[in-house]
Amino acid sequence: MVVIARRLAGHLARGVVMILVVATISFFIVRSIPGDPIAAHTQKLIEQGMAPEAAEQATRVLYGFQATGSLWEQYGDYVAGLLTFDLGQSVTHAGAPVTEVLGEAAKWTVLPVLAGTLLSFLVGIILGVYAAVKRSGKLGDVLAVSGSLLHGVPQYVLGLLLSAIFATLIPILPGDGPVDILYEPGFNAGYIGSLAEHAVLPVATYTLAAYGGWVLAMKSSVVTVLGDDFILAAELRGMKRSIVFRYIARNAILPLFTILALSLGLLLGGAVFIERIFNYPGLGLLLIESITMRDYALMGGAFLLITVSIIVANILADLFYSVIDPRVRSGEEVSA
Amino acid sequence: MAKQAPGVRIDGLTVVYKTPAGELPAVRDVTLTLEPGTITGIVGESGSGKSTMALSLLNAVQPPGRIAAGSVEIDGLGDVVGLRGEELRKARGKHIGYVFQAAQNSLNPLKTVGKQLLDLGRSHGVDDLRGLVREAKELLGRMGLDGARVLDSHQHELSGGMRQRVGIMLALVLNAHLVVLDEPTTALDMITQANILKIVREVHAERGLTTLVITHDIGVVAEVADRLAVMYGGRLVEQGPTRHVLGAPRHPYTRGLIRAIPRLVGDIAEAQALPGRPPTLATVPKEGCVFRERCPLRMDVCDTVDPEAHADGARAVACHAVTVKEHA
């Protein structure tokens, strides 16, 4: 336990430093993008046919403030805000705190991504085991080929295909938005049913897109373990099939847990295409929106959230690994 | 029920491997008897078929290999070649203990030795798991290890010599009386080798076992085995009491092997390597003697007729030249 606690402390310290570094870099990158939201909005109003002075006036009324501090002052404010979990206000959301806007969007991303990833992980590893055990038979071939094919198709192509087929050609599922506006939000059957119905296509896309990778990774992992001496040894000692199977499964799944934890971190940022396709108001869509609108605070917040989720996923993966693999766990005990 | 050391009769055993060039024999027509209570050593180079032979005793030849002909009769079990499924599984471990090469990782890296011991007990329907653990600790203690500590360890926390003793413990803990050791001392340092061999000898005597040791190291066989069988190219070319075979080898291959051992004293150049190289699965001759390409006593008949093993008292040699000389 002491080892794990010490390890956790080290990770957290490194994580905080890393987050600060990324926050700094993304702050300056975002600020060096040409154009600013005020100018962009004025420009938009002028394009819509408003007179330049009127457009400027309208913009000032809309935002209610004008940035005055130098870049370094802004940076100082930003970091000071970070320390109190204040990411500033989103200019495109009528001055709502960025954390609130992100939190609102996050719930539309986290649940479908989590569901899709876990579903594909479960299905993928189970079929991957079959693909490995039956690798010289037809079933194994079918599974391996399906895995390779799906693994090769980009997520957005899959999303478009599913949307085209199930929402347009045979319109049996909704493919636009997270929920039907007919229903009163709340804990009632209609609303929840509509939520679930709208989640089917995005979740299916996440699942199918990730499934191939899991099947292939699990297959190769199982094949490697099957060739390990201790499996033959267990069989020659007359171990029950179920026990030998557990030995194989536990050893084979080990490296996949790391990939799982890391992919959960990555998927928060990878939801951009899918949310665009299904018009899901999650973090991906929010990120696109904040970039087109030059919403600095929101952009920085979104980048930061993605960074933090990846760093946290890394820490979790490492800690989790030391729980499930005794070789990692005792690495420090021996030298202590 | 006190079990006794079983006798083993291997008769006409042929094991083939499926290759793109068809099914090729790795072990061909081997006949060998393990007398109850003896230690038999099988010596051979890599690829001579000795490990395949060892696996055959548990009917565990791995695909693409299969036992094509012959039988392996073990007292109390019958013909192992005919065993299938659960019967076969229960025979493994309980009647026949198998000890792996020390360098091979024969333990699940994620579980402690103790947990794997319990898995073994549950697999074989042992009700008294506490008794099993006690027995394991005794065996480990007998081999000079701290039983409690070893049972609480993972594989990576044990040295090669310790692992090998754990392997021997796992092979014996269910009270198996036939033990097969596959290269038991390979990849161990000399002192550990000597320790392991001493343990093998002592445990063999104490528990009343029938033991088969597979090795490429004639020194190992000389140390522990009562009887010695020499394999070459999947054939058993010579067998007999260890002392006789090593003292007066008859088959030209056995002679060549012994001549190739460097002496502790004297010129290193006195050791003469066997010319040529051993056959692989693909280059083993289809007919005639397997050793003729490297044989100093080669005759015309060797090209066409595979020599039968001729028994002479406790010894048997499969060589035309030796047979001719003796009958001349």
Shape of chain A: globular
Largest interface: A-B, 24 and 30 residues
Could you say which structural class the secondary elements and strand pairing of chain B correspond to?
Answer: alpha/beta
Overall average pLDDT of chain B: 89
Q: Spell out the CATH superfamily of the largest domain in chain A.
A: MetI-like
Strand order of the largest sheet of chain B: 6-7-8-3-9-10-12-11
Low-confidence segments of chain A, ≥5 residues, pLDDT <50? 331-336
**Radius of gyration of CA atoms of chain A, rounded to a whole number:** 25 Å
Query: What do we call the CATH topology of the largest domain in chain B?
Result: Rossmann fold
- How many strands appear in the DSSP assignment of chain A? 2
Low-confidence parts of chain B lasting 5 or more residues at pLDDT below 50? none
Radius of gyration of chain B: 20 Å
Q: How many β-strands of chain B, per DSSP?
A: 12
Beta-strand percentage of chain B?
A: 15-25%
What is the terminal-to-terminal distance of chain A? 13 Å
- Total helical segments of chain B: 11
CATH class term of the largest domain in chain A: Mainly Alpha
**Superfamily (CATH H level) name of the largest domain in chain B:** P-loop containing nucleotide triphosphate hydrolases
Order of helices and strands of chain A: HHHHEEHHHHHHHHHH
